[in-house]
Design brief:
2 helices; 128 residues; single chain; two-stranded antiparallel ribbon; five-stranded mixed β-sheet
Length: 128
């Protein structure tokens, strides 16, 4: 089962890109297959310190890395970045297609940040 942080309004999922929702399901499947926790910590809500608009546009989510060893983190990054480059967003730091990064925000905790590119033909992304 996917766990969501208490401050996430599940209605927000309606405004997210179907491609990021597909990745959310793939993340759940990956964690279940590998005996890892699956906790989504952020979707479209505004969070202090965010520089990019991928969350607000419904193209990103964050997930907790608690319970993952360093090897499991590396394996997850490799799996998702090599399996889904065709829908990955371009990283503002590296300029490369990157579906998931592992980082922390100032005064935050390390976590996974999943993001997809803007895809023509996708359903409406973001709130009306």
């Amino acid at each position: 089962m996917i766990e969501f942080s208490d401050d996430i309004d599940l209605e927000e999922l309606r405004y997210m890109s179907e491609y990021i929702l597909m990745i959310m399901i793939a993340f759940h499947s990956y964690t279940q297959k590998n005996g890892l926790p699956c906790r989504i910590t952020s979707t479209t809500e505004a969070v202090q310190g965010r520089k990019e608009k991928t969350h607000a546009q419904g193209r990103a989510f964050d997930a907790s890395s608690r319970g993952f060893s360093s090897g499991e983190i590396f394996s997850l990054l490799r799996h998702f970045n090599t399996t889904y480059p065709h829908i990955a967003a371009i990283s503002s730091k590296t300029g490369k297609k990157t579906l998931v990064t592992y980082h922390k925000m100032e005064d935050g905790e390390y976590h996974f940040h999943f993001q997809v590119r803007w895809i023509d033909g996708a359903h409406y992304v973001g709130k009306k």
